[in-house]
Amino acid sequence: MKILVPVKRVVDFNVKIRVKADGSGVDLANVKMSMNPFDEIAIEEAVRLKEAGKASEIVVVSIGPAQAQEVVRTGLAMGADRGLLVRTDAAVEPLAVAKLLKAVAAQESPDLIILGKQAIDDDMNATGQMLAALLRWPQGTFASQVVVRDGSVEVTREVDGGLQTVSLKLPAVVTTDLRLNEPRYASLPNIMKAKKKPLAETTPEALGVDVAPRLEVLTTAEPVTRKAGAKVASVEELVSRLKNDVGVL
Ligand code: AMP
What we know:
The protein is α/β, with parallel strands linked by helices. The chain has six helices and eleven strands. β8 and β9 (162-169) form a beta hairpin. Adenosine monophosphate is lined by residues 6-8, 36, 38-39, 62-64, 92, 94, 97, 115-116, 118-119, 124-128. Adenosine monophosphate (AMP) is lined by residues 6-8, 36, 38-39, 62-64, 92, 94, 97, 115-116, 118-119, 124-128.
């Protein structure tokens, strides 16, 4: 079984985001970038399937600028076999990413594509679903457990108020939720080994995909700052403040 794992280079989750003064977007100058955390979970799941003898090859793919190579290398250091960079400096929306991944899937013929449920930069939560629709493959989103059977995959999904288990015929698309696994850190020897693993490069043009944006960002704003709280000395004071000052009682 061959697994394709798309990984996105995003602002590191520890970075405090700064909005550009003109509200046109987020300031990315000198900001630490890393692999989207949900994609680390996707790689980890693929590597575990390979370690369990269920998968034979893992291909990791990223769409982005030259620096996106770094997250592909991270995937290789975690245990993927081969990398692919679809190089573009354009800002790519989920639909464009899904079209590019469909083109990559046509070349690679994976049995399973494992994506993150969402990229933590723009929180779209759309690419996996769009890709499954374009490929006409079944999808199991928000996976908290993945069990590969003969010709199918059983996905336990985190849904409101509980879990749902679906069985998908392969080839299929799965997106990862937080509780699927705890990704490993790449060890230094594996980081060194990853430098020698094959990493190919292509472009949207070569894949015949138009990545022109369909969405327009109107404005980007900082979250509203919270007003300072106040301490009260007793329940009576709390009730009185809620009644008289806040007006909620
Ligand atoms: P999104 O729909 O943008 O929230 O992203 C969901 C998932 O799609 C991510 O976790 C990645 O697995 C994949 N993805 C999104 N953008 C890219 C990209 N530029 N390159 C590779 N994979 C991506």
